[in-house]
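chain below, 66 aa
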Amino acid sequence: MQGAREATSTDGDRDAARFDDLADLFEQAVAGGTPIRRIAGENPVKFAEVFVKNYTEGGYVPSRAR
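prediction:
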């Protein structure tokens, strides 16, 4: 048996959490009757870039919450 590795988060773990949070954001929007276009705006690429930029270890932090 090789040496036990300490449990740490990897880039893949963080990416999976990011995608889960994004899916939750969209699910909540749909459940509340908010069109996805209203969440992502007219430029979905910019939305994705801002989402990633504002994503922290604890999850997404909207600009209005900072």
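The chain has a mean pLDDT of 78. The longest strand covers residues 55-56.
thats it, cya
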